Structure formats: C-alpha cells, structure tokens
Description:
Blueprint: H1 2-20, E1 34-36, E2 40-41, E3 47-48, E4 54-59, E5 66-73, H2 74-80, E6 85-88, E7 95-96, E8 100-107, E9 113-119, E10 126-131, E11 145-149, E12 155-159, E13 165-168, E14 176-177, E15 183-186, E16 191-193, E17 195-200, E18 203-213, E19 218-223, E20 227-234, E21 253-259, E22 262-268, E23 278-280, E24 286-292, E25 297-304, E26 319-321, E27 331-333, E28 337-339, H3 342-346, E29 354-356, E30 366-375, E31 384-386, H4 391-400, E32 404-411, E33 420-426, E34 432-434, E35 441-448, H5 460-493, E36 502-503, E37 506-508, H6 511-517, E38 524-527, E39 531-537, E40 543-549, H7 556-568, E41 577-583, E42 586-592, H8 599-604, H9 614-634, E43 649-651, E44 657-659, H10 664-668, H11 671-678, H12 699-714, E45 719-721, E46 727-729, H13 730-740, H14 759-772, H15 783-790, H16 803-810
Parallel strand pairs: 26-34, 37-41
Antiparallel strand pairs: 1-11, 2-8, 3-4, 4-5, 5-6, 5-7, 8-9, 9-10, 11-12, 12-13, 14-23, 15-16, 15-22, 17-18, 18-19, 19-20, 21-22, 23-24, 24-25, 26-27, 28-29, 30-34, 30-35, 31-33, 32-33, 32-35, 36-37, 38-39, 39-40, 40-42, 41-42, 43-44, 45-46
The chain binds 2-acetamido-2-deoxy-beta-D-glucopyranose (9 copies).
Amino acid sequence: MLISALMLVLIRLMLSLLSFAPHYNCNATTGVDTMFAGQSLKGNETLVSRNGKFELGFFTPGNSQNYYIGLWFKEVAIVQKKKTIVWVANRDKPINVTYFSSSEFKLLDNGHLVLIVSTKSNSSSIIQVWSTDSMTSKTTIDSSIKAVLGNDGNLVLLSSSNGNIMWQSFDHPTNAFLPGAKFGYNNLTKKDQKITSWRNAEDPSAGFYSINLEPDKSVSFKWNQSREFYNSGAWNGHFFSNFPEMRIGVVTSYDYTSYDNGSFFTFSAPNEAAPIYVFIDLSGQLKAPIWQSKTQDWTTIWVKPMQQCKVYGICGAFSICSDNNVGPSICQCLPGFEKYSPKDWDLLDYSGGCIRKTSLQCGDKDSFKELFNMDLSQAIPSANALAVDDAKKCESACLQNCSCDAYAYYKNSSGNSKGIMCLLWYGNLLNIEQLGGDKGNDLFIRLAASEVPVGSRMKASSIWTIVGVVLVGTTIIVGITFIFLRKWWTRRSSRTPEPEERYAFLTAFRYKDLKIATKNFSDKLGSGSFGSVFKGTLPDSTSIAVKRLERFSQDQKQFRSEVSTIGLIQHVNLVRLRGFCSEGRKALLVYDCMPNGSLNEHLFRRKNPKVLNWQQRYQIAIGTAKGLAYLHEACRECIIHCDIKPENILLDADLSPKVADFGLAKLLGREFSRVMTTVRGTVGYLAPEWTSGLAITAKADVYSYGMMLFEVISGRRNLKQGKDGKVWFFPTWAARKVLSDGQSVFSILDDKLDRNANIEELSRAFRVACWCIQEEETMRPSMGQVVQMLEGLVDVNPPPMQSYLQTLVQNEETADFFS
Ligand SMILES: *[C@@H]1O[C@H](CO)[C@@H](O)[C@H](O)[C@H]1NC(C)=O
Ligand SMILES: *[C@@H]1O[C@H](CO)[C@@H](O)[C@H](O)[C@H]1NC(C)=O
Ligand SMILES: *[C@@H]1O[C@H](CO)[C@@H](O)[C@H](O)[C@H]1NC(C)=O
Ligand SMILES: *[C@@H]1O[C@H](CO)[C@@H](O)[C@H](O)[C@H]1NC(C)=O
Ligand SMILES: *[C@@H]1O[C@H](CO)[C@@H](O)[C@H](O)[C@H]1NC(C)=O
Ligand SMILES: *[C@@H]1O[C@H](CO)[C@@H](O)[C@H](O)[C@H]1NC(C)=O
Ligand SMILES: *[C@@H]1O[C@H](CO)[C@@H](O)[C@H](O)[C@H]1NC(C)=O
Ligand SMILES: *[C@@H]1O[C@H](CO)[C@@H](O)[C@H](O)[C@H]1NC(C)=O
Ligand SMILES: *[C@@H]1O[C@H](CO)[C@@H](O)[C@H](O)[C@H]1NC(C)=O
C-alpha cells in the first residue's frame, strides 16, 4: 500500500516536471504585478495589478495587423471579450505582424523598459521599437529597479534601493485618464500631460483631438493640437464652470493643485469603485464612462461638448454634420461629393471628408446646388467676405474664380444695411451643420454641370423619354399586379393562416403593411432614444405611432416574448402597445397615437407654444406618477422605466398623460445603457446611482421624475447651455431662491402662467421634486408616496437642501441665470 502510494506521488512529480520543463522560463512573468530586471512579457503573458483590476500586455485593436503594449480593465475584458484600452505604450510605433516576428516587453538591467522585436527576414537583427529611455531625464543605471503595475493602473519604474519613482505611465497618458492620474502641466519635463484621441477605431496613434489644462485653469479642447473649439470654463475650486454635472452624484472627488513641479488636475474614486475613466473619444468629445456590472456595459456619465457637431472638423471637408442622424454616422457628403476614404469612415474617422465626384470645368460650365437650413456659424471664419449687395453678383464672383467652392448670400438680420453678407469659400469647406426646421441659411455649392439635376433645363427631346418611361412603367405595373393577384389567389385557395397573428392583446403586423400605413415612413413625429417614431393610419382609419427600433440585434423569438409581456401592461396612464413587427433585423412597435404630442412640446417650444395652465400641469404630474407607480408596484414584475423625461410623457385628447417607452430597457438589454447615454439631453435626468455602478432600482425613476417635475413647474429645461458656454442648472437656482433666500415659490413658476397657480399645490409640487432628487436613494419617496403627497393625502415636510446643490450654490459667482 505504502509503496504504491509513494510510486504514485513519484510518477505525479515526474509528470509535472516533464510537462513543466519545456515551457519553463525563469524570466517570464504572468499574472503577477511586478517585473524585475531581465524579465519580460511575451505573447499573451501579462502583468496584473495586485487587486486584479488592471492588466497590461500585448493587444491588437480590432482587425488591425498591429500589436501594441496596452493597459485594460481585466474584469471588463473578460465579460465583454473586448479590451477597453486606457493606456498604450507604443501608440505611434506599432509592431507590424507581417514585418516583425518575436516581440518582447522587457525590463533591461540598466533600468529601462523597452519593447524589442526582431524582423522576420533576419531574426538576429533586434530592433528597439519603444523605450522609457527617451522619456525620463533621470539616468537609471540601476539593476535594483523593478516595474510594478499599481492598483490604480499606474505602471511605475521603482528603484528598490531608495524607493524613488524613475518613470510612471501616469506621466505619459495617451487618450485616457484614470482616477489618481495627473492631468496638467509638468514643470519638470516642461511638457503638457494631456490626452489625444486615437486616430481611428483600430489605430491608437495620435488623432486630431486633444485636451490640455490651460494656465487659466480651464480645459481646452483642440483640433490638430492648435485650434481651440471648446473650453470647460475655469476651475472654481469644485468644478469647471461649464461642467456643473461633474458634481452630481459622482463617487469621485476632484482636485486642482499647483506646485513648483507643475499644475495638475486629478480626480479620485474609492478603490472598490466600479471601473471608471475619462477619455477623449474619436468623436472629439470628452467622455466619462463607468462600468455597470448590472448591465455589463459602460454608461457614460457626461459628454462634453454635448453636441457632436460642435466638434471642429469632425466630418472633414465638404461634408455635413447632423446631430439628429440616426443612421450609422453623423456625417454625410454634400451632394455631388463622395467619401474620400470609405475605409476610414467605417473606422469612425471622417477627417478625410469628401471629394468631388466630377471635377469642376471652371468658368460658366459649372453650376450651383442650393442647400437649405445650414448652420454656417463655424464655417464663417474660414470664408472670404465680399462687399456686394446683389445675389447675382455674389454668384458670379464665385463662378469667376475656379478655386471658389461655395458661396452664401444672405441678409444678417441682427446687422444693419451693412449686414448683407456675400461669403466665398476657397478650398476646404469645413464644419457646416444641417439644422432642422426653418433655421439657418442657404449655402450654394459649386458643382460640375453634370452633377446638378437638370430640373428646369429640360428640353423638348426629353418629353419623348418621359413618354417612353411612362409606357414601360405601366407595362411593369400591370405585370406585377397580375403576378400579385395570382399569388393572392393561390394563397386564399390554399387557406394559409392569417398573416396577422395575435399575441394576447397584440397584433403582429407585417412590415409592408406598416410601410403603407406610414406612407413609407414619411411623417416623422420625432426621434427618441431608441429610434424614430412615425405617424401612420390603419385601414380602419385609426391613427397609430410606429416606432422603428434602431441598431437592433436581438433574436426574434426573444423579442416577441418580451414584447408580449409589455403588451400585457395596461393602465390609463401608460401608452397602449397595439402591436409590433419583427422581420429579419427589422423591429417595430406600434402604439396608439396621442393627438396632443409629448409634454416637452407644451413645456419648452418657443414657437406657438400650447401653454398648459397650472391645473393641467398638476394633473399631468399626478397622472405620470400614477403610471410609474403602476409600473413599479402593481405589475407582476417590477418594471423600471429608466428613461423618464418630458419626451416620453405623451398627452391624449384630454391632456391626460401617458407614459411611453416603458419596458424598452429590458427589451434592448445591454444595448440600452449605451443608447440611453449617447442620446443628447437624457443625461440631465440620470440618477446618481447610474454613475456609481450601484444597482439600479425603481428609485432611479423617482429621481428622473423629480427632475421632470422641476421642468413642469418652471416650463424650462433644467440644464441649459448659454451662448457663452455657461451651463444653467435650474434645480440649483430654484432651491437657492426658495430654501435659502426664502422667496415665494411663485419665483420659480413658469412666467407664462403669470402667477396663476394654486400656491398650496405649487409648494407641494416643489417639495416633492426636491425630495425626489435626493442623492441618497433611500431618502427619495416611492412613486406611490409621490402620488399620495401630490394628492394631498399626506403632508410633505420641507426638503433638506441637497448637499450637492449646496456646493453648487455656494460656488456660483454669477447671480440670477434665469432672470
Ligand atoms: C533571462 O534573462 C537573462 C538576463 O537578462 C538572459 O541572459 C537570459 O537569456 C534570459 N533567459 C530567457 C529564457 O529569456
Ligand atoms: C495563451 O494562453 C493560453 C492559456 O492561458 C495558451 O493556451 C495559449 O497557447 C497562449 N497563446 C500564446 C500565443 O502564447
Ligand atoms: C506592415 O508592414 C508591411 C511591410 O513594411 C507593409 O507593407 C504593411 O502595409 C504594414 N501593415 C500595416 C498594417 O501597417
Ligand atoms: C542580420 O542582422 C545582423 C545584426 O544586425 C547582421 O549582422 C547580419 O548581417 C544580418 N543578416 C542578413 C542576412 O541580413
Ligand atoms: C495640422 O497641423 C500641422 C502643423 O501645424 C500642419 O502641418 C497640418 O497641415 C495640419 N493638418 C491639417 C489637416 O490641417
Ligand atoms: C509635485 O510635488 C508635489 C508636492 O511636493 C508632489 O506631491 C507631487 O507628486 C509632485 N508631482 C510630480 C509630477 O512630480
Ligand atoms: C516652474 O518652476 C520654476 C522654478 O522652479 C518656477 O519659478 C515656476 O513658477 C514654475 N512654473 C509653474 C507653472 O509652476
Ligand atoms: C482666386 O481666389 C484666390 C483666393 O482668394 C486667389 O488667391 C486667386 O488669385 C484667385 N484667382 C483668380 C484667377 O482670381
Ligand atoms: C451679423 O451681424 C452682426 C453685427 O453686424 C455680427 O456681429 C454677426 O457676427 C453677424 N452674424 C453672422 C451670422 O454673420
């Protein structure tokens, strides 16, 4: 017995030695946080911070052929099977797999980290791609040195003998900052510690957008390292003046310090906090994503600037930017132009812009194409103004010079007689933005004559072409009708089931029927967080609203089952889902149409506002609260709406409110949080717990409801950016007026109501709103309690002044934003 047991142990030992020996590399490091002199990382070996949060090693972005050394969040990479890279060592010096063979990230005996490779053609020729050597003034001939990946994600070269930091990755950020990293001006290296966007989705080399800290303590957003297009406003000790959202319920604290060795801005998060970072995106926007373990996806806490079209040069030359595009890209080539590099566009790099399809003839052979409602304000600085007071003269001025690409001629309403503008653009036309409605100016683009639609220049000979086309067309239509009739007849006689299957209370519509009902999706009611909504009419002449879900990628069976659950939820204050359509990748939801549109149109619209009186507003507040209370409490499964805002409160013929878009959070699953925060405006309604990585409960809806209630009272958006870039935050202002200055609640009431409101209801609504937006979610009432409070069944105590509101109020130098 004993002998056989011993044998077994021996055999095991030998086996393990055998299997270990060929792979064993005494210099290799993996899964540890420290590398000593002589050690290196190869292949998929990595360094992992002691807390397991960060991992450092080789990576390849997307389908790229290049290798880099980078840093990512370990947990996120495991869950998403995709690395969120927050630092790259060799961003400008890629290792090309077709060219190089073995690569090694090594700590040399002289104390420097290097990235060395050998070429495929000659394996004995070793090339040093990257090194910390050039990045530090300190001479580090120190074999006692070690490289440690800290719990904060900082890779540090540490001298074991005296503990000095010889080099750290935090001093050399790429496109992102982690909590604890220093952002600013380093007086020792005389360098800006700034961040620069990637070139495109697969290329981490420095792109066009960067942000740096200016001596006046503001963050400057620049294009091509020089041209400022956005500024954060100065640091006031608590937040950058245009970024008051920074203070709202974020678990992090911010700090600005100035020493002899430089001036730095940092932010911090508790060690146990969810992964969070700040980075400059390919879109030129600064974003703060935080990891939500609940949705297993990133949620963006804030985005600056909020509108992507305000980013300089984002669409490149001869291309139009439109924030409302729900399509794959916000950029579109001007008519007569095509993408310069479609491949770059696919990688989200639009900077190459567009080029002419047909080159100009010059002289009179060219003509102009008129574009309506363009915002030219960002393009005007690059235009040449001409003193002519006649549209024809302006046009011919452009026509006469072959390098003139476009002109605009308009009367500047704010100017006097000199306000007439003839603007000519030579060369690249950048930063033009498409506006909706009747805003903006007309722009005339010069095109080769062949690119301008013939239109009025039709000649007699074309009449015959038209006759021909009509004849052929008629024949085709008759043919198709015949085939269609035959098909229909066969179908009828073979008694196939009705195509409109019934799902409980729901109708499964066919796509083509919805296409007909909406006249080919022509009458757009609006575009929401999940897609556009179109007006339609069913054959029985009932009005419907059809929501076309964008970016949809769920399997049909799951979609149908989720939808039929939503279909079961019915309440007088919830919009009724009539049916849906699910064919291939198309997913549509069909709702009852609400004749009075959405609440935002009544509250905020300047032109012909349908002003709601106080009685109506109060009833809307109660009705909405009832609808939400039903979702939270009465349904079998608690449904969190997650996107309460005036756009999602619809009004029926009697102005009774109906909550729309509920259940979509579940329907869209992980897509949801991404979609929600990429949509402008929603950010102002997000509860703090969205930004802290805590579990989301129904109290998140209560918060958004409170935010909305402020808007119902005041008739204005809570968060508004002024012309000077200053951000106005209504709840702050309101709370100060009423709670600190002791003014009457009438001072926060919508001016349009002219103080016509029941003061008791008004102060109750104000108090409820304040309770709803408490940072601490246990302090917020439930929706059921909100209903009781608004109905006057229970008293509402005076709310405590919000701590974060207080910070905002104390540090606001500017007096009344709203007066
Ligand atoms: C380990 O490092 C030492 C010192 O740099 C070097 O001489 C040796 O070749 C390395 N061994 C391996 C297996 O890489
Ligand atoms: C990466 O690691 C896995 C195990 O963790 C191993 O099976 C695989 O061979 C490694 N790949 C390379 C290229 O070293
Ligand atoms: C890799 O290197 C080869 C040879 O220098 C080059 O032809 C190829 O374009 C490079 N690939 C990338 C992705 O840089
Ligand atoms: C390979 O590289 C080594 C070192 O750079 C050099 O001495 C040798 O001549 C090279 N061999 C060839 C075939 O190019
Ligand atoms: C960016 O700036 C550099 C140097 O100032 C200049 O050479 C380059 O042409 C600029 N790029 C563009 C696209 O304007
Ligand atoms: C600058 O000096 C301060 C105070 O001496 C120190 O805390 C900080 O780490 C230094 N920063 C750098 C980048 O050296
Ligand atoms: C940089 O250092 C010098 C001398 O140490 C000091 O005079 C200067 O004020 C510092 N500049 C900044 C921006 O801190
Ligand atoms: C066309 O306009 C450009 C820019 O103003 C100017 O440099 C050029 O001389 C003009 N050419 C002619 C033929 O007028
Ligand atoms: C309109 O004219 C005013 C005053 O002349 C000027 O400040 C403003 O920039 C002009 N606006 C446009 C869009 O040209």
